[in-house]
């Protein structure tokens, strides 16, 4: 399968996932409160402003910013649901803010998302009695029953740390002659499986602390499809990558990067490979690796390709650092 066919195949797969997301009514607009806030469409400066705005608005469990440069979103996780709702309210008028979907991580004890399942409850025990026992370990948001399992009940705490305390203190606790069993309630089901498939299709990092809600995932898919369409447009043109006349790097090293001739088809730059080649030269102690840097020139970029689209494409495709990107008006 050539580059053009492979791109078309991936775009078709993404469109299929997009339709499935649109049909997913639950959590469609990211309005179902969770302890993880998803903020999209921001840059590094706005990120710093957001961090200042949320100071004093509750204890932050984690901030995930690995996708800030490439996908322009961050995730902020709180222990207490009330703190997450407060921050959502503070930021919603200025930024694109929604609630992320909790991600199940089996080896993380705190990933109960504040809800526990109590098994083997005696029929006559009321919700009021349960609240008296379990409320000692923190504020309870809700107690829910399962229609077909009268011995099971879900107890949701505002703070997931309190849910963990209840598990530690009350598991195998005896109530009215029965020993109850307590486990964290873990997110899952078809909804989460679909979101996870989208995460894999978009090649988002595996260590996300939460999953983007469906409407935000659709935005990411649309952006990726748009990028692929632009790359198809580039494929149909004479798109070349070459190095300028060698300076400090030297002619021989330049050839090691791109060969003797410019590349006549789209070519993803493997910077890791290039860096390894530089290391293979054998720098003397005290020598600066900057002396071995060079410039890559990309010719015949379509006028519809903006500087932001070029930067996003480069940051998605390469894994090393660059000092400067300059997009000339004359292409």
Model description:
The protein has 331 residues and is an alpha+beta fold. The protein has three domains: 3-104 and 189-224, Alpha-Beta Plaits (2-Layer Sandwich), CATH 3.30.70.330; 115-184, Alpha-Beta Plaits (2-Layer Sandwich), CATH 3.30.70.330; 237-281 and 289-317, no CATH class. The protein has eleven helices and 14 strands. The protein has helices at 3-23, 44-53, 68-71, 81-91, 127-134, 160-170, 189-201, 214-235, 251-258, 271-281, 307-317; strands at 36-40, 60-64, 73-78, 96-99, 101-102, 115-119, 140-146, 149-157, 174-175, 178-179, 181-184, 210-211, 240-242, 297-299. It is elongated, with a radius of gyration of 26 Å.
Question: Can you give keywords for this protein?
Answer:
331 residues, alpha+beta, Alpha-Beta Plaits, 3 domains, four-stranded antiparallel beta sheet, elongated, disordered N terminus, RBD_domain_sf, RNA-binding protein, putative, RNA binding, RNA-binding
State the secondary-structure class: alpha+beta
Biggest sheet character: 4 strands, antiparallel
**CATH top-level class of the largest domain:** Alpha Beta
| Portion in beta strands | 15-25%
**Average predicted local confidence, pLDDT:** 75
State the shape. Answer: elongated
Q: Poorly predicted ranges (pLDDT <50, ≥5 residues)? A: 1-6, 106-110, 237-287
Annotated CATH topology of the largest domain: Alpha-Beta Plaits
- CATH architecture of the largest domain, please? 2-Layer Sandwich
Q: State the share of residues found in helices, binned by percent.
A: 25-40%
By DSSP (H or I, 4+ residues per run), the number of helices equals 11
> What distance lies between the first and last C-alpha atoms, to the nearest angstrom?
30 Å
GO molecular function: RNA binding
Keywords: RNA-binding
Organism: Entamoeba histolytica KU27
Pfam families: RRM_1
